[in-house]
Amino acid sequence: MLGLNQATAVLRAAGETTRLRLLALCAQREWSVTELAASLGQSEPRVSRHLKVLCEAGLLQRTRRGQWVCYSLTDVGDVAALASTLLARIDPADPTRRRDARQASASAQELRPAAPRRSKLGRALAAFVHECAPAAATGSALVIEPTHLELVDAAAAVARRVTVVAARGEVREALREHCDRSGIDADVRARLATGEGSREVAVLDCSGAQSAEGVEAALRELRTQLAPAASLWLVLPYELLEFSRGNVVAHPITELRRVLAAAGFRAEKLKPIDEGAHVLVAHARLSAYAVSAA
Fold this sequence. Notes:
- It is built from 12 helices and 10 strands.
- It is of the alpha/beta class.
- The longest helix is centred in the middle third of the chain and has 17 residues, at 95-111.
């Protein structure tokens, strides 16, 4: 339990607009000062001062990733519980919060890939994978651009062999270290060869996607790597599908069904998850039509 003085210090640190915006972003994943400054449209020195206040209050933790110093929400202890409760009461559809999340994803793609990490959101995503997983382990799984280490763990739990694909060298290094440390027999590589298609399970993390069209293109490319009736788990930002058709706003879950069907997948279970970041997750299967078309 927190003492009164400590609780006051924590709430005082969080009780400022810029710092609250930073907390919401850092609940999604790790960010560098450069990425956070670009996301909020503020100078790096100013953002650094706010981050220092949040770290001193125990709300954020600093982690060095090579040349980067990254910040993420503290995920254990009473301070973490207080921060989680506070962020959970803020509307995920708040315009500022949504704008910050979109800008952060765009900035991350331009500046550097975020190193995969463990988080409360990652644990919720892994739980969804296990919830829809087959009773017996399959032969091989493919995990593409994971930003949550728990997704790699979940794939390793449902398949005997795992291939992990990450375009950036820094991310591949972090993923190899994780697999070695966790005893996961994984092939971590930068890209897939054309027509390898025999994997029974795939996990596609589109957390940084900028358009529904981009997700659909990634799904079409992925289906050539899969065995007939393969299982797919997909992760993407909830707000992405609210703005994918100009002035017409479709319900995100309805729009996700359309995107999956257009790429040749049959949706089996769709679910929104709000654990620091608001995402949509899907479990789908490669349809018979897509297999014959490929």
